[in-house]
Each structure stands twice: as C-alpha cells, then as structure tokens.
C-alpha cells in the first residue's frame, strides 16, 4: 500500500483536522465554545455557537459569537430544540433562538448535549457531505471533553459551580415571585365586572394565563437542571461503568438506591459519579480483584456511597491517587473513609452532604478560614490531637496535618497553643 506523499492535498487537511481536535480536547471549559466555533469555521460558518449541557450545572450554556444572540438565548429555548431532535443526526431548520426565529444547524451528542449554530453556511469550497461529518466529529470531542473536564475538575471549580447554581436558583425564585404577582394582578383587573370590552378582556386573560403557565414551567425546568433524581443519577453511573464490566472482566454489582430518595444537587451527582469511577479504577488496579460492589443510599441529608472489592486489601489513603479522590470529596464538604483487611479486600465509604455548608462564623471569615479549617480549629481548641480529629472528621491524619498548617498560616501563629489561645479569645468575645 502506497503511503500518501507530503504534497498530497489530503495531508495538510488531515493535519489541520488533528490540530483542531487537539485544541478542542485541551480547551479550558470557559473557552471550549470559542475554540470550537473558530475551528469548525473551516467547514461551516455561523454567527453564533451555543452549547447546552447538563453535565455542567453551574454554566449549562457555553457560547461564542454575536452578542445579540448569545446574551439572549435561554435554557427553555435550547431544551425545546433538543427535545425536538429524534436522534443524533444534524438538522438544518428554523428555530426560535434568542427570542427570534433564526436559521440554525442543530445536533445532539452521545452525552445528550446540544450544539446550535445560527445562520450556518458552508465555508468556501466545502460540500455538505464533506463538512457535516467533520463538524460531527469535532462536536463529539467537545461534548465528551466537557463531560470529562467537569468530572475531573479541581475542588475550586466544584465550589464555584455550586455557588453559581445556588445563585441561579435564587434569581429564578425571585423572578418567579415578581412576575407571578404582576400577572396575577393583571388577571384580577381584566376579570373585573366593571370592564366593558368583553372580547379584549377575554383575549388578555388568555394571554396572561398562558404567560403564567410558561413562567412556572420555566422555573420548574431550571429547578430540574439543578437537581437529578437519585435513581437517574445512579443509572448514569451504571452506564459510565458498563464498559469496564464488559471489557475489564470485572463483576460489578450494583445496589440500587431507594426510588423515593431525595433528589441530588447537580454538583453532588456529578462529583459522586466521578468519585465512584475513580475509586473503582483504583480498586481494579490491584492484583486479584474480580468483584466490586457499588451501593448508593440517601439519608435525606447526605448521599452515602459504599464501594467494596474482593482484592488483597492494600489500598491506602496515603497513595497519590487516593489523596486526589479525598480532596475531591472534601471540596463538597464530604468525608471519605477507607477500611482494609489484608486478604479480604477494601471497603470505601463516602458521605457527601446534599446542601451547601452553613456560612463560616465572623471570626473564621475574618481569618479567611474555610469550613473544614474552622472545624479543625474548633477541635484543636477542645484539646484533641491530630489522630482524634481525623477520626472525628472521618479523614486521614495527613489531611488533618494539612489543615492545621493552613490554620497556623492564616492565624499568623506557629504553635497549637497560640492557635488555641486565639480561638478561645474569639469565643470569649461572643
């Protein structure tokens, strides 16, 4: 078989496609839409590119292009478009985007993310049968990387995403109350028996009633984006792990969570799946593991995860990989506990709170202490040693030492005695 010469026109085209794929795969989450739009412009041009993905609960929209479009496009519009797509095939159509009917090219990904290109047109010299497959492949890479980057995100991203979700929920609730009051007042006025223009009153009443229904539906949809039913979240986990069972020769056993369990905040659901995947992979890397049991439960306040293997019981929280998993759990104020028994396997227990932590005390805020650091200082002031604090907080002793060092640095002290004295002084002022 003859290899293509470097002068073959197909060679630079292939190199350009590989460069585009590499850039999209390496893009930060906040730049992935802009990079995707720039790269696909070699095949299909557009005035704006919008991505809608529920994998990223803090920012489900990722947008680039014309400001008059990306600033007005709504989740409700995008969700309606996605629901109208019967499969993964791209579709040229006219859709209501940013409050107006626009020509668009839309497609879903295997992760159920949506891509919208407004005012699409083929780049010069391109044919549709050539451009669409290339666009589909670059979009598939982008959608998969968004999902993976969210799963691999550092603790700071998880905290920021949770804060963004909470803020969006608060604003939605405020707008719902505001507009509901306005529309209900309008309905009352138009239903007044003193109104003589019956037909106008009837038409206005119907319009206002429809607006109320739409507003409530939008609020419900936003709430649904922020939460995931625990059973649905667990099913997505099973789907994520299925290839490991199929190709890795591991007997994965799943214990279903209660069907009536509390819905999980989006960040908790995504973080929990990432933690379970990481723990399962850490267990698989051990010799002699043939069976792993995964169980989820919910006590109304926390998501409770238990993962057990039948290996030699050699996992340790001191390992780099396990330490990274522990940091991810702690980013959501959760706890990771590991029990091992030589020759009998490893048992990992994870607890993730479903609600954001309470705000820190004024003293902790003034010192710049995080929630876990405040807890460590409180236990230090109670006279507990590092090992006891670790048991109390369900973390490793190395984690406690890490937090103690941070507490010392933020308080400007060099010893436990000084830290305890400052904490007691602050407590006495209350």
UniProtKB/TrEMBL annotation:
Q: Which residues form the HTH luxR-type domain?
A: 362-427
PROSITE patterns recorded = HTH_LUXR_1, HTH_LUXR_2
Q: Which InterPro entries match?
A: HATPase_C_sf, Sig_transdc_resp-reg_C-effctor, Tscrpt_reg_LuxR_C, WH-like_DNA-bd_sf
Which superkingdom? Answer: Bacteria
Query: Which stretch is the leader sequence?
Result: none
Keyword annotations for this protein, in alphabetical order, are: DNA-binding, Transcription, Transcription regulation
The protein's name is: LuxR C-terminal-related transcriptional regulator
Q: Which organism is it from?
A: Sinomonas terricola
**Origin organism lineage:** Bacteria, Bacillati, Actinomycetota, Actinomycetes, Micrococcales
């Amino acid at each position: 078989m003859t290899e293509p010469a470097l002068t073959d026109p197909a060679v630079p085209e292939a190199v350009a496609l590989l460069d585009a794929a590499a850039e999209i795969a390496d893009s930060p989450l906040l730049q992935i839409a802009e990079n995707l739009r720039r790269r696909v412009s070699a095949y299909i041009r557009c005035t704006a590119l919008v991505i809608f993905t529920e994998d990223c609960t803090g920012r489900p929209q990722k947008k680039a292009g014309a400001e008059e479009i990306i600033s007005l496009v709504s989740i409700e519009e995008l969700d309606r478009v996605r629901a109208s797509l019967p499969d993964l095939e791209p579709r040229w159509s006219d859709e209501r985007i940013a409050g107006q009917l626009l020509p668009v090219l839309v497609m879903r990904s295997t992760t159920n993310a949506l891509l919208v290109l407004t005012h699409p047109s083929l780049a010069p010299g391109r044919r549709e049968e050539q451009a669409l497959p290339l666009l589909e492949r670059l979009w598939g890479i982008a959608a998969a990387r968004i999902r993976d980057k969210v799963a691999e995100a550092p603790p700071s991203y998880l905290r920021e995403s949770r804060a963004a979700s909470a803020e969006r929920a608060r604003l939605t609730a405020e707008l719902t109350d505001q507009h509901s009051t306005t529309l209900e007042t309008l309905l009352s006025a138009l239903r007044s028996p003193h109104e003589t223009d019956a037909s106008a009153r009837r038409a206005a009443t119907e319009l206002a009633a429809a607006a109320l229904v739409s507003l409530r539906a939008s609020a419900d949809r936003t709430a649904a984006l922020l939460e995931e039913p625990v059973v649905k979240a667990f099913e997505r986990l099973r789907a994520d792990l299925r290839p490991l069972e199929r190709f890795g020769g591991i007997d994965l056993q799943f214990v279903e969570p209660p069907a009536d369990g509390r819905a999980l905040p989006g960040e908790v659901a995504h973080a929990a799946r990432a933690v379970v995947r990481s723990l399962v992979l850490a267990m698989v890397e051990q010799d002699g593991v043939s069976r792993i049991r995964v169980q989820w439960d919910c006590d109304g306040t926390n998501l409770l995860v238990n993962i057990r293997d039948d290996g030699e019981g050699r996992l340790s929280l001191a390992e780099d990989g396990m330490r990274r998993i522990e940091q991810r759990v702690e980013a959501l104020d959760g706890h990771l506990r590991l029990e091992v028994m030589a020759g009998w396997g490893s048992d990992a227990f994870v607890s993730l709170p479903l609600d954001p932590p309470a705000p820190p005390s004024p003293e902790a805020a003034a010192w710049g202490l995080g929630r876990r650091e405040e807890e460590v200082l409180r236990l230090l002031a109670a006279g507990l040693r590092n090992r006891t604090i670790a048991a109390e907080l369900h973390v490793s002793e190395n984690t406690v030492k890490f937090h103690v060092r941070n507490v010392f640095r933020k308080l400007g002290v060099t010893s436990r005695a000084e830290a305890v004295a400052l904490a007691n002084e602050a407590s006495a002022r209350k």
